[in-house]
Design goal:
The chain is of the alpha+beta class. It contains eight helices and 27 strands. The strands form eight sheets. A four-stranded antiparallel sheet has the order 6-7-8-9. Strands 12-11-15-16 form a four-stranded antiparallel sheet, with no helix packed on it. A four-stranded antiparallel sheet has the order 17-18-19-20. The N and C termini lie close together (11 Å).
């Protein structure tokens, strides 16, 4: 699974990189992945730790031996009441929530447990599919940067041998994985730079050397939290008690002497100004009825799997369901959450009965739909596993580009001009795509577990291939 903030935030955080060119459509598609997993997160029990007290004040060391507990606190900044054990942040006068417990598991056991559930990468490598990174599967050469939990539960951040990838491994038991994500080290550090909603298990890195203690102020919480600090500034808040998202308002880092070496207030990511001509509306391809209906893939002769089914829900039922998650989206806009406040997207307003249901697929309670705004400039992609937003869902919006097209999405796409039939090379079998109102989709729910990229073939009315392009897919939600 993957919940990266990806290159768009890494680019914005590093002014040595090329200017930001990622369009708002991609920003929304990628940013929401940091939220999605929390909608189906399982509950866990938080365990607090105690600090060693010397002369009424906590002390800390820069060392991180495997059996050692979390770092202490400097007397200049944090005071511990010997009688009550309360940790006080002298700067604010508030009581600090202690760091999560350091896992007692040896690093070798942490790597062993996490490697068993790194199967997505290993299966893809075995099938010679394009992989998202070149770090290889988790093995005993990876380094445990920080680990929280007990003998059973685990939350760990792992660094690949080439230092290019950070893996987040969270388990509720020795054989019960909760999540396993991989992201580049640059993108991982960027998580803390912007005011993006995170899960407790996500973790991040404080980008200054020598940090041994980290305090965080979280939106909606009255007291700062102490993070568990590992090697090279990697920190974690452990496993979450529920599916609540956290938003970082302030991060303070201290070195072993108690000196504050980092103080950062994450700000909302501001997307580049939109310059699309207000008169530009979405331009979909003209529908074409096939003369020759393909039943086999022309190149290999393999039988084509059936296209995803059209949802039996009425358009009104679809808009009613999607209105619930759309309402949450607009609340996020006003709170500096994961969504960019793009004026074009916001101008379209909330989903209503006036929105066109351009594509809908699903069975039972599962629904994936593409809706187009009345002004023909905004799409909403709505994926739900239950009838209301109280259950698991995924959602994003995108705005029309200067050419009248929506940017390529990993969830669905626009039919190329002249194409009457589309075949997607999924690993299970070449599959017919569902085409509707100039859009197409390749899976029942939009998610394709363990698949990062496929090749899309487009054929004209007579079965001649006129389109052949790779496409990235959304793989993290079923």
């Amino acid at each position: 699974m993957n919940n990266d903030i990806e290159h768009l935030l890494a680019t914005a955080a590093d002014d040595t990189d090329r200017p930001l060119t990622t369009d708002v459509d991609h920003l929304l598609v990628r940013a929401r992945r940091s939220v999605r997993r929390t909608r189906i997160a399982t509950a866990s029990t938080a365990v607090l730790t105690t600090a060693a007290i010397i002369g009424g004040l906590a002390t800390w060391s820069a060392t991180r031996d495997e059996g050692a507990g979390p770092a202490g606190t400097p007397g200049q900044t944090i005071t511990i009441d010997v009688k009550t054990g309360r940790i006080i942040d002298n700067e604010t006068g508030k009581t600090v929530v202690p760091a999560p417990p350091l896992s007692p598991l040896p690093d070798a056991e942490v790597l062993n447990r996490c490697s068993r559930y790194d199967g997505a990468y290993q299966r893809r490598a075995h099938l010679e599919h394009k992989t998202a990174d070149k770090a290889g599967p988790i093995n005993d050469r990876w380094k445990v940067m920080v680990k929280s939990g007990d003998q059973s539960a685990l939350n760990a951040l792992l660094l690949s041998p080439d230092q290019s990838i950070v893996a987040t491994c969270t388990m509720s038991g020795p054989t019960k994985p909760e999540s396993l994500g991989r992201t580049s080290t640059a993108n991982f550090t960027a998580k803390s730079q912007y005011r993006n909603a995170l899960t407790l298990q996500d973790g991040f890195r404080v980008p200054v050397p020598g940090v041994t203690q980290v305090l965080m102020d979280l939106a909606g919480e009255s007291s700062p939290r102490a993070a568990l600090v590992g090697t090279d500034g990697f920190v974690t808040l452990g496993r979450g008690k529920d599916d609540k998202l956290i938003t970082l308002e302030r991060i303070r880092g201290y070195d072993a002497s108690g000196k504050k070496v980092y103080d950062h207030a994450p700000q909302p990511f501001v997307a580049p100004p939109r310059t699309v001509d207000p008169s530009v509306t979405v331009k979909t391809a003209t529908p074409i009825t096939p003369v020759v209906v393909l039943t086999k893939e022309p190149g290999s002769g393999k039988p084509l799997a059936a296209a995803p089914p059209v949802s039996p829900l009425t358009d009104e039922q679809v808009t009613t369901r999607c209105e619930g998650v759309d309402e949450i989206y607009f609340k996020d806009l006003d709170k500096g959450g994961v969504n960019a406040d793009d004026a074009v997207i916001k101008a379209a307003g909330p989903i209503s009965r006036a929105w066109q249901v351009a594509l809908k697929t699903g069975t039972g309670d599962k629904l994936t739909a593409v809706l187009i705004s009345p002004d023909k400039r905004v799409y909403a992609w709505c994926h739900m596993l239950t009838p209301t937003a109280k259950g698991a869902y995924d959602y994003t919006r995108g705005a029309v580009q200067a050419d009248g097209k929506f940017a390529k999405s990993p969830d669905f796409a626009m039919v190329p001009d002249g194409v009457a039939q589309i075949v997607v090379d999924l690993p299970t079998a070449p599959t017919r795509a569902l085409i509707s109102n100039g859009f197409f989709i390749w899976g029942r729910t939009g998610g394709n577990s363990d698949i990062k990229s496929v090749r899309v073939h487009g054929y004209d009315a007579h079965g001649k291939q006129i389109y052949n392009q790779p496409m990235d897919l959304d793989v993290d939600f079923d």
